[in-house]
Amino acid sequence: MIKTRFCVISDTHNCVPFPSSDTQHAYRLPLPHADVLLHAGDLTIVGQLREYRVILDALKAADAELKIVIAGNHDLSLDEDYMKLATKGQRRTMGTEMEVRKAKDMWTGEEARTAGIVYLEEGTSTFELKNGAKFTLYEEMPSFDNLGLMLPQIYTSPYTPEFCQWGFAYDRNEDRFNHYEAVSKPEIHNIQAYNPVPSWPAIDIMMTHGPPHGILDKTRGGDMAGCDNLLTALKRCRPRLHCFGHIHEGWGAERRNWDENSVQKLQPSKDVVIQPGGAFVDVSTGGGVPLEFGKETLFVNAAIMDVQYQPDNAPWVIDLDLPAGD
């Protein structure tokens, strides 16, 4: 097993890290060094081309070998199905049709590729790092790298239950994560899983924009806004790490033991994370209590924006043991 560091952020909403001289925010330059940077979506406010440019430049500067990015419900112009149904007024908000086409080109083109940025949608891919570690991640939709070659395996998904007619949405009664054999009563499920989440031990890392039900998903009104079907899939999949955002006030992490149905909350205070520039968690062998794959999952809500859309939350920095490549 090889110790690998992940820097995880989400819901930046067009906000770049503060200058290094800033002493009030953990989200500042430089972002913590990592082998892999994960951005779990909501790059922008409404998916305008100029918004993508701002955050793309920020991610290019990040110190990570690999930077995996998915969209969120605010990244409207990256949702092709949404754009087909958008009104003329909505399209004016997001820019011209040509700008919309340029949005995906920006995230999949040579500029992004050269900076180590990989934009994923929905399906499974595998990556091998320079340190020799290999991990499989689930995304939603089979993805290809920027050269048109099929990527090795990892699970990611930009989709969340429908909310106020934003992008990448599905009905709450729609199950896009499980196949018929994976649910106890398939006759009452509206199963639309074109790329169902594989079962354990296929997936090491899972990145979705939204949370599963009951895990770091509580809104300020007290509702649990996460997806039940995603939770069902996670119980089968049991990845080492599942990261997401979407519910800003759910920022935090928890280590869940599936067999014992126990949870260890990891919620550092704001003053603790400001000085180091992140919330650091070590579940590798070097951390003393390594995560047990198949028995435990580390969940991380990495929303940078708080519920008032202020960038007061910290990046998460996760040390994790991964299997060696071939």
Shape: globular
The assigned structural class equals alpha/beta
Discrete helix count: 7
Give the beta-strand count: 18
In terms of DSSP E residues, the strand content is: 15-25%
What is the topology, as strand order, of the major beta sheet?
A: 4-3-2-1-18-16
Spans of 5+ residues with little confidence (pLDDT < 50)?
A: 140-152
Percent helix, as a range, is 10-25%
Radius of gyration: 18 Å
Q: How much is the average pLDDT?
A: 87
N- to C-terminal distance: 12 Å
* Secondary-structure element order, N to C: EEHEHHHHEEEEEEEEEHEEEHEEE
Q: Tell me about the largest β-sheet.
A: 6 strands, mixed
Please tag this protein with its features.
6-stranded mixed sheet; alpha/beta; 326 residues; single chain
Provide a descriptive summary of the structure in words:
The protein has 326 residues and is an alpha/beta fold. The protein is built from 7 helices and 18 strands. The protein has helices spanning 49-60, 80-85, 88-94, 97-108, 110-114, 228-237, 270-274, and strands at residues 2-9, 34-39, 64-69, 117-119, 124-128, 134-138, 155-157, 160-161, 169-170, 174-175, 190-191, 205-208, 241-244, 252-257, 262-266, 279-282, 296-301, 316-322. Strands 4-3-2-1-18-16 form a 6-stranded mixed beta sheet. It has a 6-stranded mixed beta sheet with strand order 7-12-13-17-14-15, with no helix packed on it. A two-stranded antiparallel ribbon has the order 5-6. The longest helix is centred in the first third of the chain and has 12 residues, at 49-60. It is globular and about 50 Å long.
